[in-house]
């Protein structure tokens, strides 16, 4: 027994209490014998103690009773010469014992086998039950009847693996005794990694002394390997090695990876021995090995039984495919060497893997042998390209949208593209780019389309492949609001020779080019935007790409301001939403577009109804801010705009919209300095991005007021959208900000939500008399006599503006 021991005082107290039957249970190396030594050395019973250590010879029941007879005789408990019937001699002597006696049986798991083990347990329990002078302590690796059914007959004290395992403080104490320098973090790591396995932790610490005191967790492999090799039953050894492959498992999975008639029995025994952690997940009981133990078991399986390791991974792969867990299926397929399955999973779930699980995809691909990777382009992209996107400012995982199902697009264009000279690598990169756009991952989309363009050019894959990659770059910049950059890509040389494109691909290139040109023209408020929208080609497949086409038409209707077009396209957007999966970015964009179109059409109540169930996210935050502004809720509009501007995934278009909402809200509240500051930020965004359409959030009169005569800024508003002289003359003078003081504006704003002076006073922190005074002044200035009249007149003054304006401000 090692002398450098750390035994929990609580365990020693359990032993010192001397229950009629005490069971110390734990797997090999859990310090059972050491704990008994510590107890008998520190505070042994005051009466006679006989200690017996068993070996495998005790598997034979007769040999067990012979060994017990010999030890009791040597201790003077039994008189005379040993008889042939050792069992009868021991039982009679212990049953008649009139003075206190403690019998400690170590390695009790060797006592008998199968039926004979149960007979031994029953006999010993009966002895303890009959004679209150007899105390029995057994130390065993496994759960036996003496512990389970014995507790029904006598009082049983149990020292389980939970009490025997070491925790971080005990690990620190043990390291100190062994002379190994260890900090609290390393102690916690050892305790957690081994689940407190005392002998394994001690083995690593002792061996680390020979390596200069530096903790080397790889040394644990030797201890675990020795433990596994020392197991008596091959089925148990196989169970440990094979069930260590999955991170965790339940009974069903255990039978899958380690099939056999005794699998569930072994599971029960291994769990009872303390080698498995256990928790309830949902309605399942799930088991797992401690991290360092699991790693050692898997390494042992890989080194000693590589074919079995692949067999386990193949079984897990099949199960994951059945459950449609394609990420796990891919990993298991690669470990199993099932390259065809791995490639098929990558191809079928490329859009999901490359956007939702890029790190897993890349790590999995790097496990594939180089010669296999060289034969499969998609493996090459996963191994060599994905890591480039992970370092280019990719948004956090919580900001990535679920991708649309691009299988339809793949089936539509894939065979045609590959037939016409596009390489498989280029096509995989284009798929990645489209999926990243739909996932809201702008940086990855730009990286993927950029690499597709480079690969297509270097491989000489033809003008259509380069043109599609170029349009991917232009479309990504256009969708995320970088209009100037998108326009520069639309002038690229690869888009100037449509006659050189294969006829089968020419239609796809033309569709994308016209769609992107129309979106860019709308965002810049180009005079020919309407013509470009009319020239777009119509897509028959009702997917996310078609949803973008509907959005462009609806935005065009909103910009034109024609009542008939607005009503028609608001209805079209509403219908289009139902064709797309809910909760994805494309569907969310259509919902936000519907609100925008309804606001332009003056249908505020309808817009608010649509926005009622519109989640707040990167797509909709500017929409909610504009809705509050249109409803005259200026404080709320400003708050929502500021919150949106803090969002890391906001597009340039939404950034500019929020800056303008902030400027309009502050202007309406009479906060001139704040309005000018927000407007200046919007102007800088307009110059940087090329965006002009968000300017229509403001009335033209507010825009000119905030521009303060700066001709360069005034030039941002396109001539075609400026109000005529007649409309300017008809625009109401003396708006709310000119009529009312800032405090009166706040009181008027509060009047939207509250019906009297008392609640308004509570909200604004004013006295009731002060609020009544402000209300009288507001009613007088607006020429009304009551709340409804004030709200109606305020709405008239605030919402009146030149025909065609998109927002109120």
Automatic annotation (TrEMBL):
Regions that span the bilayer: none
Top-level taxonomic group: Bacteria
Classification via Gene3D superfamilies: Winged helix-like DNA-binding domain superfamily/Winged helix DNA-binding domain
Segments forming domain HTH luxR-type: 733-798
Pfam family, one: WHD_MalT
PROSITE patterns: HTH_LUXR_2
GO MF term set: DNA binding
Official protein name in the record: ATP/maltotriose-dependent transcriptional regulator MalT
């Amino acid at each position: 027994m090692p002398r450098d021991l750390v035994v929990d005082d609580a365990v020693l107290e359990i032993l010192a209490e001397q229950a009629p039957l005490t069971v110390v249970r734990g797997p090999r190396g859990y310090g059972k014998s050491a704990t008994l030594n510590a107890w008998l050395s520190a505070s042994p019973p005051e009466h006679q103690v006989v200690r017996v250590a068993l070996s495998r010879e005790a598997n034979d029941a007769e040999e067990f009773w012979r060994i017990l007879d010999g030890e009791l005789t040597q201790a003077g408990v039994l008189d005379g010469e040993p008889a042939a019937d050792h069992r009868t001699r021991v039982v009679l002597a212990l049953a008649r014992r009139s003075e206190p006696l403690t019998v400690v049986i170590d390695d009790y798991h060797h006592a008998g086998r199968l039926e004979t083990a149960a007979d031994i347990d029953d006999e010993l329990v009966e002895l303890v039950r009959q004679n209150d002078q007899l105390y029995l302590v057994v130390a065993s690796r496994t759960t036996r009847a003496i512990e389970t059914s014995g507790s029904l007959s006598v009082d049983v004290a149990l020292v389980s693996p939970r009490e025997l395992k070491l925790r971080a403080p005990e690990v620190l104490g043990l390291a100190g005794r062994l002379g190994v320098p260890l900090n609290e973090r390393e102690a916690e790591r050892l305790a957690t990694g081994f689940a407190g396995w005392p002998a394994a932790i001690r083995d690593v610490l002792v061996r680390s002394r020979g390596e200069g005191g530096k903790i080397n967790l790889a040394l644990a492999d030797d201890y675990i390997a020795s433990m596994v090799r020392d197991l008596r039953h091959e089925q148990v050894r196989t169970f440990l090695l094979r069930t260590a492959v999955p991170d965790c498992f339940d009974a069903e999975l255990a039978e899958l990876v380690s099939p056999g008639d005794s699998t569930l029995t072994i599971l029960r025994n291994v769990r009872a021995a303390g080698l498995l952690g256990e928790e309830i997940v949902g309605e399942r009981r799930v088991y797992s090995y401690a991290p360092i133990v699991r790693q050692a078991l898997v390494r042992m399986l890989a080194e000693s039984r590589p074919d079995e390791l692949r067999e386990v991974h193949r079984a897990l792969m099949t199960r994951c495919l059945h459950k449609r867990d394609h990420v796990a299926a891919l990993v298991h397929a690669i470990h199993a060497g099932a390259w065809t399955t791995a490639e098929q999973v990558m191809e079928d779930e490329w859009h999901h893997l490359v956007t939702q699980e890029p790190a897993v995809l890349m790590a999995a691909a790097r496990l594939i042998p180089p010669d296999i990777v060289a034969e499969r382009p998609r493996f090459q992209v996963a191994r060599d390209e994905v890591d480039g996107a992970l370092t280019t400012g990719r948004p956090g995982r919580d900001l990535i949208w679920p991708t649309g199902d691009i299988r339809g697009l793949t089936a539509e264009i894939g065979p045609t593209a590959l037939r016409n000279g596009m390489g498989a690598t280029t096509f995989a990169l284009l798929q990645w780019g489209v999926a990243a756009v739909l996932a809201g991952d702008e940086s990855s989309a730009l990286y993927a389309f950029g690499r597709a363009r480079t690969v297509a050019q270097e491989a000489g894959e033809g003008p259509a492949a380069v043109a599609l990659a170029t349009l991917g770059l232009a479309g990504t910049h256009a969708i995320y609001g970088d209009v100037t950059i998108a326009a520069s890509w639309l002038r690229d040389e690869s888009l100037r020779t449509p006659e050189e494109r294969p006829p089968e691909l020419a239609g796809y290139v033309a569709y994308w080019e016209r769609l992107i040109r129309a979106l860019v023209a709308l965002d810049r408020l180009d005079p020919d935007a309407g013509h470009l929208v009319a020239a777009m080609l119509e897509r028959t497949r009702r997917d996310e790409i078609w949803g973008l086409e509907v959005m462009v038409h609806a935005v065009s209707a909103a910009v034109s301001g024609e009542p008939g077009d607005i009503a028609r396209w608001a209805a079209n957007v509403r219908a289009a939403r139902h064709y797309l999966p809910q909760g994805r970015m494309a569907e969310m964009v259509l919902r936000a577009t519907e609100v925008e179109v309804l606001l332009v059409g003056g249908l505020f109540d309808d817009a608010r109804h649509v926005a009622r169930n519109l989640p707040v996210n990167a797509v909709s935050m500017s929409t909610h801010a504009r809705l509050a502004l249109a409803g005259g809720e200026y404080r709320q509009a400003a708050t929502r705009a500021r919150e949106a501007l803090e969002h890391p995934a906001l597009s340039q278009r939404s950034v500019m919209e929020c800056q303008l909402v902030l400027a309009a809200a502050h202007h309406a509240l009479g906060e001139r300095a704040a309005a000018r500051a927000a407007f200046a930020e919007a102007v800088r965004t307009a110059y940087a991005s090329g965006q002009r359409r968000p300017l229509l959030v403001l009335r033209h009169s507010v825009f000119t007021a905030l521009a303060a005569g700066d001709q360069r800024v005034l030039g941002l508003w396109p001539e075609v959208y400026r109000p005529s002289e007649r409309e300017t003359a008809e625009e109401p003078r003396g708006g709310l900000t000119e009529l009312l003081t800032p405090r009166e504006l706040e009181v008027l704003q509060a009047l939207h939500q509250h019906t009297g002076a008392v609640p308004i006073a509570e909200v604004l922190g004013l006295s009731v008399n002060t609020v009544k005074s402000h209300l009288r002044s507001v009613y007088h200035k607006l020429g009304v006599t009551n709340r409804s009249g004030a709200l109606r007149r305020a709405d008239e003054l605030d919402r009146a503006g030149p025909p065609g304006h998109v927002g109120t401000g």
